[in-house]
Amino acid sequence: MKKTAITICMYSLFVFLFFCVITNNVFSEDFKSIPVKGMVTMLDLGAKQCLPCKMMVPILEKMEKNYKGKAAIIFIDVWKNRDQAGKFGIRAIPTQIFFNKEGKEVYRHVGFMGETAIIKQLKKMGVPKERGRINFPK
Question: Which residues pair with 71 in a beta bridge?
Fold first, then answer.
């Protein structure tokens, strides 16, 4: 009975590890590519349970869609990835960090950051205006 239980546990562990390797999802996400080299990067560090962070979700989703290929818009949940808070020197959430194309930090904001402020900062950094906006004459 003991040998059977141990065999089942070992087999389950093997299947789990194999699945993780196949899907490239081994225990923690790959944050080594942040900031994205050769592209302006906006990094939002927060938590899915934080109220101001929740308020930013639709804004970040819109920015990610509208700036695809022009700027990298990335969210990291620091409650799930605590090491990233230390890596980026986070003292409060949400915190947004903007990196230039060379990967150098050029701007940092702590707290909720609205869509207009994000667009303004990206524009300052030379990112072309977001796509999808058409202004019709009145």
Answer: 40
Non-local (6+) Cβ contacts of 45 within 8 A are: 75, 76, 78, 84, 85, 88, 90, 93, 94, 95, 96, 97
Q: For 54-82, write each residue's pLDDT tens digit.
A: 999 999 999 999 999 999 999 999 999 99
- Entry pTM: 0.73
Decide if 93 contacts 84 (C-beta within 8 A).
Answer: no
Of 55, 63, 65, give the one whose Cα is nearest residue 120: 63
Q: Which two tokens stand for residue 68?
A: 């695809």
Domain coordinates in residue numbering, the chain: 1-29, 40-124
- From residue 22, alpha-carbon distances to 17, 19, 116, 123 in Å are 9, 5, 40, 39
* Distance from C-alpha of 52 to C-alpha of 60, rounded to nearest angstrom: 12
Cα separation of 60 and 56, whole Å? Answer: 6
CATH superfamily of 40-124: Glutaredoxin (3.40.30.10)
